[in-house]
Fold this sequence. Notes:
Layout: H1 7-20, H2 29-42, H3 56-85, H4 100-117, E1 124-128, H5 135-144, E2 149-154, H6 157-167, H7 173-176, E3 177-181, E4 196-199, H8 207-220, E5 226-231, E6 251-257, E7 266-272, H9 278-284, E8 288-293, E9 311-315
Parallel strand pairs: 1-2, 1-4, 2-3, 4-5
Antiparallel strand pairs: 5-7, 6-7, 8-9
Helix pairs in contact: 1-2, 1-3, 3-6, 4-5
Enzyme class: transferase
Pfam family, one: NAS
Catalytic activity: 3 S-adenosyl-L-methionine = nicotianamine + 3 S-methyl-5'-thioadenosine + 3 H(+)
Amino acid sequence: MVCQNDALVKKVCELYEQISGLESLKPCKDVNMLFTNLVVTCMPPNYPIDVTKLCQSVQDIRSKLIRLCGEAEGLLESHFSSILASFENPIANLNIFPYYSNYIKLSQLEFNILTQHCSRFPTKIAFIGSGPLPLTSIVLAINHLTTTCFDNYDIDPSANSKALSLVSSDPDLSTRMFFHTTDIMNVSSALKDYEVVFLAALVGMDKDEKIRVIDHLAKYMAPGALLMLRSAHGARAFLYPVVDPCDLLGFEVLSVFHPTDEVINSVVLARKYVMPSLEQQDQLSPKILPKKCSKIEAFNPLHHGSMIDELAIEEQLS
């Protein structure tokens, strides 16, 4: 059982106390400094820590910290989305966002993983939890999936309004990017229209919430469609929720990749089972067990063949 005596955990808990004491999480010098320190503390990719083995007090701090990180990330994106909207051409100025290069790398990573498991480029993608600054959708649409349409879902109307203002003046993106203000749990039949569904890291900020969303997608996505999720590994799980392969009932896990650079999120790709009925799907899903993971390799976006930590799946049908 890991508790506050671990040096990294102690540092994270100290930063949590400082962050939770802030009057506001809106971007400013103090907020930026504290969250930068938190990210740097949690970044070592091979730090030997399993957050599931933390003592209860640290588990509670981790849960609260993830929500604080989510709130701060939303406020940061909203702040820069407003700044970008003041430019005549917002899309040409995306690099003013301080973590833009991370999105470039993460989008390259996700695109490379997709191409290893897709026979052709998808014509229609859903991104769930797109937020006020939908950088993943925008970067994928500009750099990789140049003819694909993106349906972006967010529960916050102000986030969608800000996002729409960024792409509305762009002659290409304005015809391929659409924004829907709704809780994804209220979307059912429309999910069958998508060949690929992206689920943002902060949609479902605890295990139960995340699993409810995944189960909903398993019920309504088209058989054979791909689900791309963001997770976290090691100490990085203090920043984002973890998606375990065993959480993906109704899906075949194809790949799990843990970056070792400044890209914080792990990436999980899964395919919805092709089943004649949901009943058969439910009978099969609990029997999908992770078998083993191969050695994790450092992410190099220029390498396509050896970049993924492939998760072998053993199907035990009894």
